[in-house]
Amino acid sequence: MASSSSSLPIFLPLTLLLLISPALSLTCTSQTFTNNKLYSKCADLPVLSSFLHWTYDPANSTLSIAFIAPPSKTEGWIAWAINPKATGMVGSQTLLAYKKSDGSMDVKTLSISSYKDIVESKLSFDVWDTAAESSGGVYRLFAKLKVEKKTVNQVWQVGPSVTDGFPAKHDFLTPNLNAKGTLSLTGGTTTTTASGGSKMKKRNIHGILNAVSWGLLFPIGIIVARYLRAFPSADPAWFYLHIFCQVSGYAIGVAGWSTGIKLGSESKGVVYTHHRNIGIALFALATLQIFALFLRPKKEHKFRFYWNIYHHSLGYTILVLGIINVFKGLDILNPAKHWKSAYIIVIIALGAIALLLEAITWIVVLKRKSSKSTKPYDGFNNGQG
């Protein structure tokens, strides 16, 4: 009795650990289905907390699958696809499971020729026995497919919502971009590529370069030119500092713009129209602004007034478009919240500095004008010159 009672404190924790361990280390081998369906193979997919179970019968080329994943939001969607020709989402033949407004689950078949051209249609291979279920915040997608090849390009994805049966765009974070690879139906192995991570690195470089150039250096250069020139002691230092900021910003901006063009060529079907168009406009306007330096008339030249109007108008246009496009880029990259907050703080700080300098400049200019004003009796002696 003494022996059994002394072992009880050790036995109870071990029993509890064995009971909860499946929940702590969920893998595909520990999963079961309400229909008690069994599959010969399964894989813990490397991203998006997803799992794939499958059985392949080479005799009749039938593939039975169960894809399991949590949607990115409560009423979102999950999708699993085979791409017959490529390794990405574009061109994939897709099965999409989602929850309808009445709470029931539904499965759609989608043909994705581009990220903008997603249509519900029959797939390029036969599909039957499609079904889906939801429990515990996880969706389960079931189907049978006619697949002739023993190795296929698989793609999987999760999204936030479905409106009128049409899936909303998923995130373009590293896990989403890496949700693809090859699947050996008979060997039971899956492989993924790291191209998504490499592409995300390029996207981050593109974002940093453009935030520094259009979003920081150009505004600072404009602040320098507008306010420091009012102080004679800052001449000609303000001019060289202005040129340094604008030329450096242009050089970095061209590098960022080139990176964006390269990313666009590598991401067929992924188009951010407004961000792209604003970027092209910025590059064109900034190029005109840089070349305008070589056509800058002297102060006393009769065309200097018109050149100033052109130069200032173009500069302020670049300022506004640059900041707008930085925010559009942040929305696309969707970085950690503190990065966007940090940029907002920097822009607010620059705006506050500009307002303060605006007030100081007007005070200086008005004082200067009042000290130089000419009254009717100034310079005269009782009407005599």
From TrEMBL:
SMART domains to which the protein is assigned, alphabetical: B561
Cytochrome b561 domain span: 166-366
Gene3D superfamilies reported for this sequence: 1.20.120.1770
CDD domains reported for this sequence: Cyt_b561_FRRS1_like (cd08760), DOMON_CIL1_like (cd09629)
Positions that bind heme b: H206, H242, H275, H311
Cofactor binding, per record: Binds 2 heme b groups non-covalently.
Cofactors (names): heme b
Main location: membrane
Pfam families tied to this protein: Cytochrom_B561, DUF568
Keyword field: Electron transport, Heme, Iron, Membrane, Metal-binding, Signal, Transmembrane, Transmembrane helix, Transport
Gene Ontology molecular function: any one: metal ion binding
Subcellular location: Membrane
Organism of origin: Pyrus ussuriensis x Pyrus communis
Name of the protein this chain belongs to: Cytochrome b561 and DOMON domain-containing protein
InterPro entries, alphabetized: AIR12_DOMON, Cyt_b561/ferric_Rdtase_TM, DOMON_domain, UCP037471
Domain of life, per lineage: Eukaryota
Topology within the bilayer: Multi-pass membrane protein
Residues passing through the membrane, by range: 205-225, 278-295, 307-327, 342-365
Function: May act as a catecholamine-responsive trans-membrane electron transporter.
UniProt domain DOMON: residue ranges: 48-159
